[in-house]
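[Meeting: bench + compute handoff]

Bench side (C.D.) handed over the final construct sequence. Compute side (W.E.) agreed to return the predicted structure before the next meeting so the bench team could plan truncations. Sequence as handed over:
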Amino acid sequence: MTEGTPRVWLVTGASRGLGRAVAEVVLEAGDTVVATARKVEALDGLVERFGDRVLPMPLDVTDRSAVFATVAEAGERAGRIDVLLNNAGYGLAGAVEEVDERQVRDQFEVNFFGALWMSQAVLPLMRRQGSGHLLQMSSIGGVTTYPNLGMYCASKWALEAVGETLAQEVAGFGIKVTLIEAGEFRTDWSASSMVRATPMGAYDSVLAQRRHGLSGAFAHLQPGDPRRAGVALLRLLEAEEPPLRVLLGTGAADRAPGVLRERLAAWEEWDPLARTTDFPPRTGPQETL
């Protein structure tokens, strides 16, 4: 696409929260948005404000066949897809011992597999275009972990691994990938968007503070401004060499470097042990082929 040409975005989970705010910001900037949500009527407000620059489409990202059909239709209707924002997701609160199988599988179905199916579906279009940008909505929980959020963090770590791999695989096609490692933004993520495991009494003292923090009591009080996140993503897309990873929010920017410094220090401390596990080097005459 030429400089100054409006982009076509495909945004999952666009009915509320961060996805809704980003959609509004990019529409205000003149771009077009294919907005998806489980309940398409939740997108009516966007259509009323922005008219035919919004293409509302119902979508459950866990349904792989529906994902491929929806992306194909979106590409046909919009003509191209320049940006995929894999935003659909939710939180699962519970200690590792507390969560049940269904809760864990559902968490990965949305946060990981949903993003994977969307990426697979949009890549053929972007490869034909010779351009595109996948914005994978990760989290500071994809960099480090937090008690009572182990499964949520695990889903984001999986997303980070695939995103880093994908970036290497598609760069030659002119496609870019960025992992958005977001901190706390002012949404209902810790309230109605949160699933909670049944608490076990054994963890009452260990997780009391964390449970309260994820109870919804602090929803819509978080420091991050979702609209400013949208502005930041627009700036990111203008970069000649956008990063593989970008932190959003002061809390995330403060936390991540310390986590990596701790990790490096541990690796350095135990480096001698790491080097004890290879076969000894051969010291005799070397065979040649």
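W.E. noted at the follow-up: The chain has nine helices and nine strands. C.D. will use this when planning the next construct.
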